[in-house]
Write a structure and sequence with these properties.
Blueprint: E1 3-8, E2 12-17, E3 22-26, H1 32-48, E4 59-60, E5 64-65, H2 72-75, E6 76-78, E7 81-83, E8 88-90, E9 95-99, E10 108-116, E11 122-129, E12 133-141, E13 146-150, E14 174-182, E15 185-190, E16 193-199, E17 219-223, E18 227-239, H3 253-256, E19 257-262, E20 265-273, E21 276-279, H4 281-284, E22 293-295, E23 304-312, E24 317-323, E25 330-331, E26 342-347, E27 350-352, E28 355-356, E29 360-372, E30 375-381, E31 392-394, E32 399-404, H5 406-423, H6 432-435, E33 440-444, H7 445-456, H8 460-492, H9 496-509, H10 520-530, H11 533-543, H12 546-554, H13 561-582, H14 588-612
Family: Belongs to the peptidase S1C family.
Organism: Novipirellula rosea
Keywords: Hydrolase, Protease
Length: 613
């Protein structure tokens, strides 16, 4: 079979036939030389699949069974505890605390499986952070139930940025809690749902003086409840970029909201986790990572952008991997944004004439949750301008409850204007911005949380694949735009003598297989427009570093060889069209045949590349 290898693993290979259809077969059906070829291909790809820093998964050490170490008689501090062969259980005391007899240091992960026995009370976990500091993770305390970290900057969980308002446990059902602890970053999940994601200087964390627990020990306590704990494991973390993450200062909106700039556009963004920058997808959809300039207030240097880890076109949401010590903003992981709450919107709006306001703050009020073009959005009473796209919407605890979405705001204003016009004819003739002023839409916080959890679950290989796919799409769009511009230039640049030939030829033999030329006067106007400063500057930007981008594509482990060849061929056809535009000659039939062939090739190549991307 004449086919190209496009994907493989240890058990099967995917091949693309000459007709571009794909087939997947078991590797055991291949001949030995073909198996050797597959193994060499896999080895080469593994060598090139490196993406760092940004998202680098934690490398965990051997699991230690902490549950087996605990002796309730020796290790309890308060309350009543008992154990059987498979579990330990607190027995409903007002406060029952047990210290785990195993020292911890550095970065680690604690995994706990617990079941609440009665429908009241809370479970708390004492964590050691940064070798000298401690903090209490609280789950389902009080009425209504709340969770978070206590204490941060001397504030308990209802008053700090980790406040989580929704119930965590279901009585009678086992839940898995995973606490991932680095020197300056804590990530806590329950049944794979993020409850706490905190980053900062560990000296900001304290434990109430009533707790007398050594600083290198973990502990568990229950308040006015009974919990049965069936699994308790500890694993040290040997390697992670977060182990070396040292944020500067406290996370504040004034410092963690950034201006995003590149030659073809700009917008806003903000850090929502260490080294993860949030923005709207349309802000960065036309930029490769190397072009993006991220400007934080009071920071002289722009952090390096390693790639786009998530680009959700439909949701208009993007997550970028950046390298910065800037502390991230807290996210309301419970998605809490009740109607009537006061919020603030931060961004970098454009005021016209090249003026951009840095870190502008607009106050607003959450009015409703609306559906625009199939997606839910927060509707906020606030006036925002272009350039604020991708900025955060924050509640009273400076938690992110939404992402400013200018595209949704434009659609929302259109929708409101049309609705008002149906109610009252006087609105039909009013400009849209006069029909309804002071409206903004935001991507809800719960959608941001899902996106962040998705990105955290990426392997280095998946992160690299996503980043490279975005780069490839940007290069593809630029080539497609250049092709259109060059084809138009070639058409309008033909001399008048050729236009006279075209008129005579098409009058005698028809124009089905011939290039239709734009009439002389419209061609003159188009030629002048294309040669003006604006379009020429755009062409220069589209061509900038194109050879370097194509070189990166040639070595990409995430594209088939046929698509890599198509990228190269597309670039060559565009150069040929550019040469034809510069020297069209005087022979219409020859020029027409050349341009029709190049146009057909470009159309085919664009279709084939787009199909894979």
């Amino acid at each position: 079979m004449d086919a190209e290898l496009i994907e493989a693993n240890d058990t099967e290979v995917t091949l693309k036939r000459a007709d571009r259809t794909a087939i997947t077969i078991s590797i055991i059906k291949l001949s030995q030389p073909d198996r050797d070829l597959v193994q060499a291909w896999l080895h080469e790809r593994k060598q090139t699949e490196k993406f760092k820093p940004g998202i680098v998964p934690d490398v965990l050490g051997e699991a230690v069974d902490l549950l087996a170490m605990i002796d309730p008689a020796k290790d309890k501090q308060t309350g009543k505890w008992q154990r059987d062969a498979n579990a330990i259980m607190s027995l409903g005391s007002s406060r029952a605390r047990i210290v785990i007899p195993h020292p911890v240091s550095g970065s680690y992960q604690l995994r706990l499986v617990a079941q609440r026995q009665i429908d009241s009370g809370s479970l708390n976990i004492g964590l050691a952070v940064g070798n000298r500091h401690q903090v209490l993770a609280i789950f389902d305390y009080g009425r209504p139930k709340r969770s978070g970290l206590a204490w941060i900057d001397g504030k308990n969980e209802p008053s700090n940025s980790t406040f989580y308002r929704k119930p965590v446990f279901t009585t009678g059902r086992e839940s898995e809690i995973v606490c991932t602890v680095h020197n300056s970053h804590l990530h806590i999940t329950c049944d794979d749902k993020t409850i706490v994601d905190w980053a900062g200087d560990p000296s900001r964390l304290t434990l109430h003086p009533n707790f007398r627990v050594p600083s290198d020990r973990l502990f568990i306590e229950t308040l006015f409840s009974s919990f049965r704990i069936t699994e308790l494991q500890y694993q040290s973390i040997h390697e992670s970029e977060l182990s070396r993450y040292k944020p500067r200062g406290k996370p504040t909106p004034a410092h963690s909201v950034a201006l995003i700039e590149y030659p073809l556009g700009h917008g806003s963004g903000f850090l929502a986790a260490p080294n993860l920058l949030i923005t709207n997808y349309h802000v960065i959809e036309d930029a490769v990572a190397s072009e993006l300039k991220i400007v934080f207030p009071e920071q002289r240097d722009s952090p390096k952008v390693h790639g786009v880890l998530l680009g959700d076109v439909d949701r208009d949401l993007a997550i970028l991997s950046v390298q910065t010590q800037q502390a991230p903003l807290a996210v309301a992981h419970d998605g809490h944004s009740p109607i009537g709450d006061s919020v603030q919107l931060r961004g970098n709006p454009t005021m016209g004439s090249g003026v951009t306001l840095r870190d502008a703050v607009v106050k607003g009020t959450v009015r409703s949750m609306v559906r625009v073009e199939g997606y839910d959005f927060l509707q906020v009473d606030a006036s925002i301008d272009s350039g604020s796209s991708g900025g955060p919407i924050l509640n009273e605890l400076d938690q992110v409850v939404g992402v400013i979405a200018m595209k949704a705001t434009d659609e929302g204003e259109k929708w409101i204007h049309e609705s008002l016009a149906r109610l009252d004819d006087s609105f039909k003739n009013k400009p849209r911005h006069q029909a309804h002023q002071g409206i903004a839409f935001g991507i809800p916080g719960q959608d941001l949380v899902k996106a962040l959890d998705h990105v955290r679950g990426l392997t280095a290989q998946q992160a690299g694949r996503n980043a490279q796919l975005h780069e490839n799409r940007v290069v593809f769009k630029r080539l497609a735009t250049l092709a259109g511009i060059r084809l138009l230039e070639a058409n309008v640049n033909v001399p008048d003598v050729m236009r006279h030939q075209a008129a005579r030829v098409t009058a005698t033999r028809g124009a089905d297989d011939l290039l239709e030329l734009i009439p002389a006067e419209p061609a003159r106007l188009l030629r002048a427009a294309l040669q003006s400063e604006g379009p020429q500057h755009t062409v220069t930007l589209l061509q900038q570093n194109m050879d370097e981008h194509l070189k990166t594509i040639r070595s990409s482990p995430y594209l088939s060889q046929s698509t890599i060849r198509d990228f190269h061929a597309l670039s060559q056809r565009i150069k040929a069209i550019e040469q034809a535009a510069e020297r069209p000659g005087t022979d219409y039939l020859r020029f027409s045949a050349t341009m029709m062939r190049l146009q057909k090739d470009v159309t085919r190549l664009l279709s084939e590349v787009k199909q894979e991307l």
